[in-house]
């Protein structure tokens, strides 16, 4: 009998109308660095679904919207003990995928691609006024101030480009539906005293399509979320 291949790593690609990004990036994604991969898609109607299927990539269609939903669905479907989440909109450099996984192999519970470390670059760095980057740094500052007791400072608590052990993901019992999912994941990992590492990343520009995360509504949602999370016993 043939021995079943051991699945260590699962690559999850998150899409909601990302045809241009997928076209540009699919050839650069190091699929061979992962034992399993699939796309989690929410209602794309721009050709993303066909594009993915034609390449023989498994696609899981989400029924409820939101990145939070996508992360939980992916974790239920994944067979690997290490999960790495990649969004093909141009912001994330696919070459970081093996680097994130290597850090998990070193024993960390979660590894974040940070846009705010020495050697990193943030999408807004080309501008003088950087509202999104400043808001991101402020949210990270508050999370560390409130909950980080002696762990390494986490410089980018919000970036979605990250890898995590499935066992750690399950322990965090994440409830956020949308873009707050990553922030919640980091806050709860800090509160649980999990081992968190960061690697510097170079954030690229969005390749095509549209951002679904307007800065002001997303920022306000984060503030509201921070308040609720602060009041949650965990
Ligand atoms: N599966 C899934 N993917 C989503 C959902 N919402 C957004 N995405 C994907 O998540 C990634 C990040 O979403 P964006 O809208 O680019 O948000 P952002 O990165 O904060 O904003 P910009 O980079 O400025 O556009 C993209 O690849 C989206 O296609 C969702 O509900 N489900
Ligand atoms: Mg983006």
TrEMBL record:
Pfam families: Glycos_transf_2. It comes from the Bacteria. Gene3D superfamilies: Spore Coat Polysaccharide Biosynthesis Protein SpsA, Chain A. Coiled coil: none annotated. Residues 35-172 form the Glycosyltransferase 2-like domain. InterPro entries: Glyco_trans_2-like (IPR001173), Glycosyltransferase_2 (IPR050256), Nucleotide-diphossugar_trans (IPR029044). SUPFAM superfamilies: Nucleotide-diphospho-sugar transferases. This is Glycosyltransferase 2-like domain-containing protein. It comes from Candidatus Chisholmbacteria bacterium RIFCSPHIGHO2_01_FULL_49_18. The lineage of its organism: Bacteria, Candidatus Chisholmiibacteriota.
């Amino acid at each position: 009998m043939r021995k079943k291949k051991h699945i260590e790593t699962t690559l999850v690609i998150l899409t909601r109308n990302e045809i241009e990004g997928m076209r540009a990036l699919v050839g650069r994604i190091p699929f061979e660095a992962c034992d399993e991969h699939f796309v989690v898609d929410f209602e794309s109607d721009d050709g993303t679904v066909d594009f993915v299927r034609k390449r023989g990539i498994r696609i899981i269609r989400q029924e409820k919207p939101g990145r939070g939903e996508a992360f939980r669905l992916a974790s239920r479907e994944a067979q690997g003990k290490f999960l790495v989440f990649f969004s093909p909109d141009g912001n994330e450099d696919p070459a970081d995928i093996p680097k994130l996984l290597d850090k998990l192999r070193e024993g960390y519970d979660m590894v974040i691609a940070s846009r705010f470390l020495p050697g990193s670059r943030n999408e807004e760095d080309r501008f003088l006024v950087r509202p999104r980057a400043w808001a991101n740094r402020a949210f990270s500052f508050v999370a560390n101030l409130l909950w980080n007791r002696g762990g390494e400072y986490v410089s980018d608590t919000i970036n979605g480009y990250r890898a995590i052990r499935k066992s750690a993901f399950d322990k965090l019992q994440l409830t956020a539906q949308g873009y707050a999912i990553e922030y919640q994941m980091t806050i709860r990992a800090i509160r649980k005293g999990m081992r968190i590492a960061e690697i510097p990343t170079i954030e690229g520009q969005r390749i095509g399509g549209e951002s679904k995360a307007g800065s002001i509504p997303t920022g306000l949602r984060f503030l509201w979320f921070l308040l609720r999370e602060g009041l949650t016993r965990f």
